[in-house]
Design goal:
- Helices cover about 40% and strands about 15% of the residues.
- With about 400 residues, the protein is of the alpha/beta class.
- Helix 3 crosses helix 4 and helix 11 packs across helix 14.
């Protein structure tokens, strides 16, 4: 595909010193409740409208996605491209709805949407395009077709994890220096533990004194089944497990809780778009996923001052320090995970100290201002590079891994 002349698309500064915003289109695979979607909302709510005029394309319309209306309330146009089994038809529709907006940059917010972003940018003559990886470099390699197409079609890749950026940068000739690391943002939240516990108890009476909590979509990759195994070995009269979220694994998790004999102290709290408001109710936040980018759930628990127990991994070591602001356990050792949780439950002072350290660590490094500045720099770099006009057939290419 050949791009139109770059002069057809307005740049951020065109008018005799007056700042003219350029249109940036963000293609989202969905706008349902989720960490990636909250990050999109934060970006749209805080970006500089004097520099960027945002437009959002959702590939999951008419599904009552939580963030769709809220993004529209920011006075951001939401363009709906209906589901279609034919990717070419969907691409042509994306190009059709974007063309009137004279889009300068097209950004795929999810990896699924990233090839569409690159191809649509070429069709409408946009100045540049970006793909995104919200998970780990391992997930990038597993989704080989999406990854390969993203490398061929976009001008850069935005990731939220330094470890993923280093790994992909070492293995991919295609992106070279155009892998942009922009860590997720976390908002300071209410840490009133008593109020949070009271609010949660109104919804789900929990008689046990100690609450182990976790949040996220109930899918196999999050390994909530491990947390059921952990809690099954803890004292029944003292500990309860609270899982906030919904997803395809809910029924199997409910069944496993029954099989383990912990159904009466396992609370499936359901999906809550603002679960942050009662995360501080937990005594310990347990996180068993082994395959993440930079997980919002951990950032939000840390911001709430809750001690965190999780597997040791590069993406978590970017956020927290083992033994000080978190307890990071050797991956796969369920008994060590359980004993670590039990030790924290017995030591209130250790819980409080770890929670304070976690809160200080994330609020100092993962604020919204830094996130917005990083996103802005990535957009500016792609827009300024004009690499979008190169002949893709002669570009050096490579597949990560």
């Amino acid at each position: 595909m050949t791009r139109h002349a770059a002069a057809e698309i307005p740049t951020p500064r065109e008018s005799a010193g007056r700042l003219t915003p350029c249109t940036v289109a963000i293609i989202a695979g969905q706008l349902a409740i989720g960490g990636a979607e909250r990050q999109l909302y934060l970006w749209l709510a805080h970006l500089d409208r004097a520099r960027f005029r945002p437009v959002v394309v959702t590939l999951h319309p008419d599904c009552d996605d939580y963030w769709e209306d809220r993004i529209a309330q920011l006075d951001v146009p939401v363009l709906r491209v209906k589901r279609n089994g034919n990717p070419a038809t969907r691409l042509l529709e994306i190009a059709r709805v974007l063309r009137p907006h004279r889009t300068a940059l097209v950004h795929g917010w999810h990896l699924f949407a990233s090839p569409y972003a690159g191809a649509a940018a070429a069709l409408i003559g946009a100045r540049g395009s970006l793909g995104s990886l919200r998970g780990s470099s391992d997930s990038y390699r597993r989704l080989r077709l999406q990854s390969r197409m993203t490398e061929w079609l976009t001008d850069g890749l935005l990731v939220n994890s330094e470890s993923a950026a280093l790994d992909l940068g070492a293995g991919s000739r295609r992106f070279g220096g155009r892998i942009y690391t922009v860590p997720n943002a976390v908002e300071e939240c209410d840490t009133d533990r008593a109020g949070a516990r009271a609010a949660l108890t109104l919804r789900h009476p929990i008689p046990q004194p100690f609450w182990i909590g976790s949040t996220g979509r109930l899918q196999s990759s999050k390994r909530f089944d491990v947390l059921l195994d952990v809690v099954s070995g803890l004292p029944a009269k003292e500990t309860a497990l609270v899982l906030a979220g919904d997803g395809p694994m809910r029924d199997s998790l409910v069944s496993k809780a029954r099989e383990l004999g912990i159904a009466d102290r396992t609370i499936f709290a359901g999906e809550d778009p603002d679960v942050r408001r009662w995360v501080s109710a937990f005594d310990v936040f347990a996180f068993a996923s082994e395959d993440e980018g930079l997980p919002n759930a951990v950032l939000e628990a840390a911001a709430a001052g809750v001690p965190i127990v999780a597997w040791r991994s590069p993406f978590l070591e970017e956020i927290l320090e083992n033994g000080r602001s978190a307890a990071l356990v050797e991956p796969g050792n369920v008994e060590a995970f359980r004993s670590t949780v039990a030790a924290l439950l017995r030591d209130r002072e250790a819980r409080q100290s770890m929670g304070r350290a976690a809160r200080a660590a994330v609020l100092g490094r993962f604020g919204v201002d830094r996130f917005v500045a990083g996103m802005s720099r990535a957009y500016d770099d792609v827009l300024a590079s004009r690499r979008a006009g190169r002949n893709r057939e002669t570009a050096a290419t490579g597949v990560a891994g």
